[in-house]
Amino acid sequence: MASTSLLHTRAQLGLESVAVQVETHLSGGLPAFSIVGMPETAVKESRDRVRSALLNSRFEFPQRRITVNLAPADLPKAGGLFDLPIALGILHASGQLTLQAPGEIELLGELALNGALRPGKGVLPAALAAARAGRCLILPAENAAEAALGGGTVYGAATLLDVCAHLQRITLLQPTPAATPPPALDSGPCLADVRGQVQGRRALEVAAAGGHSLLLCGPPGSGKSMLAERLPSLLPPLDETQALTVAAIHSLQTPRPLSVFRLPPFRAPHHTASAIALTGGGAQPRPGEISLAHHGVLFLDELPEFDRRLLESLREPLEAGEIHIARAARSACFPARFQLIAAMNPCPCGWLGDPRRSCGYVCEKARRYQQKISGPLLDRIDLHVQVSALSPTELINAPAGEPSHAVRERVVAARARQFARQGMLNQALPGNALGDVLQQHRRWLEQAVERLGLSARALYRLLKVARTLADLAGNEQVDHTALREALAYRAAEPSGPPG
């Protein structure tokens, strides 16, 4: 006599956690165990894990024809988190387990051969989806704290037997309380550590206030990396929605510790990183560094050393704030609203233009080095800053600058003005929102565009930076002072603005 079972779980498709029904059918015939519904290798291997886990948990493994269907059939299934619902489906279909209201629970978990539950990746998106669906979630105990951030009812179990005892109301599991993330405190390096570099510190403040991208160019040891590493300390903490989105993205790779739940992420991939590592992808699409830096900072040191095609792949995410990954079997979309901070030397040896050292490269070689970065990518970087190296004497005598918390207060105030006026940061403003500034300073801007050869994109990015400078100064209108400073950040070399 045939028996069936229907349980619920989740499959990961990018950042989306798709509902999956685990249908189990036991029928007569020669013993067999098949899993259908586009299972990948890890899911097919669950047959052996489930068989051993059931036997070692002292259940009977049915000597019948077992068919497990993971629906919808056209959605690829990957990973070991389907083990638990498959095992429980077999127990339910064979009459060894009685379930009350199985439609109210969702199950995730990889089984060890002895029946223990092992933690997996990507549980937070599944927990958020289960909470929206009004179902409780049962999963490995080591994943319970992370899943509880989703706001739903979460039960953590150590073994398959613990789950069975809970479902049969023998020994109930305790719901995992929702953890309260600590307040975002000052962490990481402080801006006060940077001595001198007045223009670099100012550019960091402007970038933080408006969400702008920044390119630092200067000789080795001038402090470019020091400046970039201190940008996160100037950013306000993430709100709850932003923090949950960031935590969900990181859940697919390595979950973020609760102690940094509200802190903007900072990612600094090496220049040897592959395209998949930077932008995401793979057979089972995973987020790359640009998505792991969502609502935070992506720092690319030694920018010209990155593969050029890799850098070109950043152009669309910088504009759209997301990346679409298309593969033959599936496609996925990951958010990628990050602040790009890049650093580079002016030439291969790094000392071009330094008055104290002779450069080992002629100007033509330096030009070729700088041309590794395309014009379209440079166009999308709002602030271009020359960082000069300080002599040891200048470094010793330079006074300590403001600490990060003092600068952050001005950044927070400027951002508050932007959200009150337009509901977004200046970096995300559409071009038509800057029409009044364009008309008011038309002649001045025409001279600037002609003098520097700016593109239309560069012009509008200049206006966005000027709008941020006005917000930092507490001005409602963008004046010539803000425009002149914004123009200085677009000039390849320092020069006076148009008269």
Automatic annotation (TrEMBL):
Pfam families noted in UniProt: ChlI, Mg_chelatase, Mg_chelatase_C
Native organism: Alcanivorax quisquiliarum
Segments forming domain AAA+ ATPase: 210-391
Keywords from the UniProt entry: ATP-binding, Nucleotide-binding
NCBIfam families membership: YifB family Mg chelatase-like AAA ATPase
Keyword Repeat assigned: no
Family: Belongs to the Mg-chelatase subunits D/I family. ComM subfamily.
Keyword Isomerase annotated: no
SMART domains on file: AAA (SM00382)
InterPro entries assigned to the protein according to its UniProt record, in alphabetical order: AAA+_ATPase (IPR003593), CHLI-like (IPR045006), MCM_dom (IPR001208), Mg_chelat-rel (IPR004482), Mg_chelat-rel_C (IPR025158), Mg_chelatse_chII-like_cat_dom (IPR000523), P-loop_NTPase (IPR027417), Ribosomal_Su5_D2-typ_SF (IPR020568)
Protein name: YifB family Mg chelatase-like AAA ATPase
